[in-house]
C-alpha cells in the first residue's frame, strides 16, 4: 500500500509545476510613434526601440513565481533585436530591418509559442 | 493684493517647456541616464566642435553627423560601473563609425545604451528629417538663429555665416553637413575657412555688393553682402549685420571666389564680426560612452 502511494506521488509530482500558457506583454517605455504590443503579436517601425514588461501565465492551476526565469529571443536578429535589461522581466525590442520574424519565449526551460513580430517601414 | 492677468500669462509662458521639444534634457527613455548631443564635426550650428549641446536636439538632419555621450542619472547607483556603449538600433537608419553617428534615413532612430554584459540599460530616439529649407544666420549671434538676408560690413574685416537646415515645419535640424559656399564677386569679399562645412568665414576686401550662396544637395540660399567703406572697422558701431525675415534668393552663385578652406578655423577670427563658439554650449563632461 505504502509503495503504491509513493509511486502515485512520484507520478503526480511533475503536475505540481506550472505549465506555460501564454505571455502577457505590456509596453513600459513611451515610443515616439504608435506600436502594437501584446502576447499575440508585436508590430513596430524600423529604427524604433521599445521596452516591454512580460509576465508568463500558467496554463494550469500552478502559477509562476516572480523569480521564475523568462527568456525572450528573436528568431531573426537582423529584423528584430531582443535584448535583456537589468530587470529580468523587462526586455528591449528593436526594429532593425523591415520584415517579419517571431519572438521565442522560454519559461523555466519550457518553450512557449513564438510571438509573431513585424517590423514596418519608417512612418 | 491683485495680480495683473498679463503678469500671470507671462509667468505661464516662462514656466512652460517648449511643447514641441519632447525631451530637451535628453533623458533616457528607461530613466537610467541622460544622453548628451556632441558636435563632432565643424560647422554644426548646435554647438562648437568638440562641445556638447545644452539641450538634446528636437530633430536631426538627414545625412547629418553628430556624437552622443551617456551619463548615469545617479552615480551612486552605478558606482564602479563602466558607462554603457552607445549603439544605433538600426544601422540602415543610423550609421556609426568610431565616435560619430550619421543619420542615413528619415524616421525615428533609436540609440541603445548597452552594458558589457549585453544588457540594454537605456535608450533614446533621434527624429531624423530631410532638409526642406535652408537659413543663413550670423554665426556671431549663435545660438540665436535669427534669419539673415543681408550682411553689411566694413572693409577689411572677417565675419562668419552659419547655415541652419530646416525641416518642412521650419524646425532646425542638428548635425554637421557638407555645405558648398560661393561668393559672386571675389573683388568685394572672399571665402575663408569653413568651405565644405556649415559655417564659413567671409573676408571683406573692397566696397561693393556681392552675393554669398550656400548649397546643400539641391537646396541653396543666398544673402547679399554689402561692404561699406563708410563704416569704421575699429569702432564696430555700425558693423552690425542687418537682420531681416528670411527670403531665399535662389541664385546660382558664381564660384569664382576664393574657396580656400585649408587655413585657420572658421571660428578663430579676431575681427569685429568674428565668430566664437555658441554660448548655449557646455564642455563635454560625461565620459566618452562611445
Please report the two chains with the greatest interface, counting residues with C-beta closer than 8 angstroms to the partner's C-beta.
Answer: A-B, 24 and 24 residues
* Rg result of chain B: 21 Å
Give the terminus-to-terminus CA distance of chain B. Answer: 56 Å
Under CATH, the topology of the largest domain in chain B can be stated as: Immunoglobulin-like
Structural class of chain B: mainly beta
Oligomer: heterodimer
Please give the share of residues in helix of chain A.
under 10%
Unreliable stretches of chain A, pLDDT < 50, 5 or more residues? none
Number of DSSP strands of chain A? 10
| Arrangement of strands in the largest sheet of chain B | 1-4-7-6
Provide the CATH architecture of the largest domain in chain B. Sandwich
Supply Rg of chain A: 18 Å
Ranges of chain B where pLDDT stays below 50 over 5 or more residues in a row are: 6-17, 242-290
Number of helices in the DSSP assignment of chain B:
1
What is the CATH class designation of the largest domain in chain B? Mainly Beta
How many separate domains make up the residues of chain A?
A: 1
Major sheet size, sense and barrel closure of chain B: 4 strands, antiparallel
Amino acid at each position: 500500500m505504502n509503495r503504491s502511494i509513493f509511486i502515485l506521488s512520484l507520478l503526480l509530482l511533475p503536475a505540481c509545476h506550472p505549465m506555460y500558457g501564454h505571455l502577457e506583454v505590456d509596453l513600459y517605455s513611451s515610443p515616439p510613434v504608435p506600436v502594437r504590443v501584446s502576447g499575440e503579436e508585436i508590430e513596430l517601425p524600423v529604427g524604433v526601440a521599445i521596452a516591454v514588461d512580460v509576465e508568463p501565465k500558467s496554463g494550469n492551476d500552478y502559477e509562476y513565481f516572480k523569480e521564475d526565469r523568462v527568456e525572450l529571443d528573436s528568431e531573426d536578429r537582423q529584423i528584430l533585436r531582443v535584448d535583456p535589461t537589468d530587470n529580468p522581466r523587462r526586455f528591449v525590442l528593436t526594429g532593425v530591418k523591415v520584415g517579419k520574424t517571431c519572438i521565442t519565449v522560454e519559461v523555466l526551460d519550457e518553450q512557449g509559442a513564438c510571438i509573431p513580430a513585424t517590423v514596418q517601414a519608417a512612418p | 493684493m491683485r495680480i495683473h492677468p498679463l503678469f500671470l500669462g507671462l509667468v505661464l509662458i516662462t514656466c512652460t517647456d517648449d511643447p514641441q521639444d519632447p525631451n530637451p534634457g535628453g533623458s533616457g527613455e528607461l530613466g537610467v541616464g541622460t544622453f548628451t548631443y556632441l558636435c563632432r564635426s565643424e560647422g554644426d550650428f548646435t554647438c562648437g566642435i568638440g562641445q556638447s549641446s545644452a539641450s538634446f536636439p528636437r530633430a536631426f538632419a538627414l545625412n547629418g553627423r553628430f556624437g552622443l555621450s551617456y551619463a548615469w542619472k545617479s552615480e551612486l547607483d552605478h558606482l564602479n560601473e563602466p558607462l554603457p556603449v552607445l549603439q544605433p538600433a538600426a544601422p540602415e537608419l543610423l550609421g556609426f563609425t568610431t565616435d560619430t553617428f550619421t543619420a542615413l534615413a528619415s524616421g525615428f532612430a533609436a540609440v541603445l545604451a548597452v552594458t558589457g554584459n549585453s544588457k540594454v540599460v537605456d535608450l533614446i530616439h533621434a527624429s531624423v528629417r530631410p532638409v526642406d529649407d535652408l537659413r543663413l544666420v550670423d554665426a556671431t549671434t549663435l545660438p540665436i538663429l535669427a534669419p539673415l538676408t543681408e550682411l553689411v560690413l566694413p572693409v577689411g574685416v572677417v565675419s562668419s555665416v552659419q547655415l541652419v537646415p530646416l525641416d518642412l515645419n521650419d524646425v532646425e535640424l542638428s548635425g554637421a553637413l557638407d555645405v558648398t559656399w560661393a561668393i559672386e564677386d571675389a573683388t568685394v569679399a572672399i571665402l575663408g575657412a569653413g568651405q565644405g562645412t556649415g559655417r564659413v568665414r567671409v573676408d571683406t576686401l573692397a566696397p561693393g555688393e556681392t552675393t554669398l550662396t550656400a548649397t546643400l544637395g539641391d537646396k541653396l540660399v543666398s544673402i547679399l553682402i554689402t561692404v561699406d567703406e563708410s563704416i569704421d572697422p575699429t569702432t564696430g558701431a555700425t558693423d552690425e549685420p542687418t537682420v531681416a525675415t528670411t527670403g531665399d534668393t535662389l541664385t546660382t552663385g558664381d564660384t569664382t571666389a576664393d574657396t580656400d578652406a585649408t587655413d585657420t578655423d572658421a571660428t578663430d577670427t579676431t575681427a569685429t564680426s568674428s565668430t566664437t563658439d555658441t554660448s548655449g554650449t557646455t564642455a563635454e563632461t560625461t565620459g566618452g560612452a562611445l
